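hey can u check if this looks right to u? its 183 residues, i copy pasted from the old doc so theres a chance i mangled smth
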Amino acid sequence: MSRIGKQPIALPSGVEVTVTGSHVAVKGKRGELSRTISPSIRVSVSDGVVLVERPSNSSLHRSMHGLTRTLVANMVEGVNTGFTKSLDLVGVGYRVAKQGEDVVLSLGYSHPIRYTPPAGISLEVPNPTSITVNGSDKEIVGQVAAKLRSFRKPEPYKGKGVMYKGEQIRRKAGKSGKAGKGK
């Protein structure tokens, strides 16, 4: 039995869930999200609670049961409170500036990198060495944060790069010196 799939999803006040066949739409104060789910999984709404049920105990239905429940729960949380990911820029001269909706990153390349976020995502720059990604869709927030990180991934020798807040970088030792050179 899926322990996650069996758990009911409590609906906060101001959040509406509409199920039409295999299409689930969630509306709340931060916007509206919709997703098409597996047709074999059944989603029902009653008394302020969303229930996800599966037709059989097969391996596919068990895996889709937990996945569907998690996706719907993330949609409910996203339209109610939203999701946030924070990134830090570590390195001499690495900085970020906000220009309108875009951000301009200086990451040690010969040119600045300009990034325009997709619809529904807002980028905040609390200080020149950190970026905060906000949005109601958890999947897109994660994709945008990963894209920003990919511009200069953290490297293990000096620990420089764009990294998630609190991320630990495993450091490597550099070259072992000049031993063995000459006679």
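The helical segments are 3-6, 59-80, 138-150.
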